Each structure stands twice: as C-alpha cells, then as structure tokens.
Amino acid sequence: MSRTRLRFLVGCSLALGLVSKRLLKKITTKEKKITPNKQNLKKLYLGKWQFSDPNNELEYIIEITDNLNLKVNNTPFQVTIIALSQDKLILQDLYGYHLTFYYHLDGVTHFYDEANDQIYNLLPYKKTPKD
C-alpha cells in the first residue's frame, strides 16, 4: 500500500468519524425531552369543567384556578397539592382523600375521586343564562 493511499484512507476515516459524531450529537439533542418548569405545568390544569355524578344525577362545575386551588360549584374547596406532572395533578382534600386530574393532548379529560372511588369525565364548561 502506498503512502498516499494510506494517508487518504486515514484522512477519510477521520473525516467520517467527525461527521458521524456531529450527526449523533444532533440526533440525541433532538430526542431529549424538554421538561417544562412548574409554572408551565400549572397552566396545563387551569380551567373550568362540568361533570355529572351518575350516583345522584346532579351536575357539577369544577374549576382549577391559577394557584391550583379548587372550586366546586363556585365554592372554594380546600386542597393540598400532592403531585404535579405532565400527565396528572394530585390534590388532597381535608379528609386525606385524593383527587387526581389527568392531562392528555386534548387537555384535562377526567378525574378520579378517591373518596367516592369514581372516575368522572370532564366536559368544557358551558356558561348558562343563569350564570
């Protein structure tokens, strides 16, 4: 093997190594998940919804405010934040029961009430003339 051929092969090998390293770095950077900060996570759960209780056939309005406070039928409901993530918000009431709100791409879609052992589907709140 001649020297020029050897130099050419070593040069190509080095160039290929640098290019592949750069491409690998670019790909892994894109794949890293962006972890939202706590303030952005809070925004996922803000809103006002309505739901029906199948046990008593009553309609309820539930609202999560800026500070992740909870209102049920416009009455403040004292809760403590237990967990906050991209897919769920867990609140604890005064009696120690958990309310778990689930977030999906469509927004907050349902919540689980541990006290009643019941899952409630949430619908966007529709203002009525008497509100």
From TrEMBL:
Spell out the InterPro entries in the cross-references: DUF4828 (IPR032254)
Highest taxon of the lineage: Bacteria
**What is the protein name given in its UniProt record?**
DUF4828 domain-containing protein
